[in-house]
Design goal:
274 residues, alpha/beta, Rossmann fold, 45% helix, 24% strand, globular
Length: 274
């Protein structure tokens, strides 16, 4: 069994309507996070160092969120198409790029899983197909679609390890095992699948830590989703625990993550075999 087959076997089925609601609920939070300066962003630095982004470059931003990277690409003179499953995220993307040249960007609500490349005119159209921390890249079909849409490079990133203090405590309370291995699987399978296909993806990783403060209601909604709490008893258990940990309705959480990035040229099949 090759890595593509193993990834298909491992892949979890997702409810896109539930996913849309989850990201709609978190759009305002991600919009605030996205307002940080991009001057020293390591991903932008990597893409610049390899001349992958340049004035006039066509970029597809999959899971563009509130438009943090889309805006940076636009400011560098790229032509950008940003797609996301969340209408609220797309609204923020449009708002955050309102002062830029509208001839150079398009934002639309579109799950990558449902994107029809031929109908959109996206077959081999983009210089860079970009998916930063996007859950939409969840299996072989989504990676193959990235390759089909690109005439230059593809970039994807994902958590390798993601730990948060409250989440770890809640998993103990609910007798759940750590899900860290689930995060590592995405890039593990993607890298090996690409290698078996004949590509030579570059791999990098980075460490990140931040303190997050949010209200109990938002925290409860988040952890109910992440811990797959579907019954009323488990949901109540989560909310009771968060209430005990809160101070005036606010929860302080410490998030640590090790993130990985894959970058590959879709031309490497021809170039590297000469």
């Amino acid at each position: 069994m090759n890595f593509e087959e193993r990834w298909i076997e491992k892949k979890k089925q997702t409810d896109l309507s539930e996913t849309q609601q989850f990201w709609d609920n978190r759009a305002a939070e991600f919009n605030e996070i996205g307002k940080r300066q991009m001057d020293d962003d390591p991903v932008i630095a990597l893409l610049k160092s390899k001349d992958i982004i340049f004035p006039g470059a066509r970029v597809l931003d999959i899971g563009c969120g509130a438009g943090r990277y889309s805006k940076a690409f636009l400011e560098m003179g790229c032509e950008v198409v940003g797609i996301d499953i969340s209408p609220n995220m797309i609204d923020f993307s449009k708002e955050n790029t309102a002062g830029l040249n509208t001839d150079h960007f398009t934002f639309k609500v579109l799950p990558w899983e449902q994107a029809d490349l031929a109908a959109e005119g996206w077959e081999g159209y983009f210089d860079l197909v970009f998916a930063s921390m996007s859950p939409a890249i969840s299996g072989p079909d989504e990676v193959r679609k990235m390759i089909r849409a690109s005439k230059g490079y593809c970039f994807m990133s994902s958590h390798l390890i993601k730990e948060d203090k409250i989440g770890t405590e809640l998993r103990t309370v609910l007798n759940q095992e750590s899900r860290a291995a689930d995060y590592r699987d995405t890039l593990y399978y993607a890298f090996n699948m690409l290698w078996e296909m004949g590509y030579f993806p570059e791999f990098r990783n980075s460490d990140n830590q931040r303190v997050k403060v949010w209200n109990v209601e938002k925290a409860a909604n988040y952890y109910e989703h992440m811990l797959r709490a579907t019954d009323a008893e488990t949901k109540q258990e989560i909310r009771d625990y968060l209430d005990k940990k809160s101070d005036k309705g606010q929860i302080e959480d410490v998030n640590y993550s090790k993130n990985g990035q894959l970058l590959w040229s879709v031309q490497s099949l021809q170039t590297d075999r000469r």
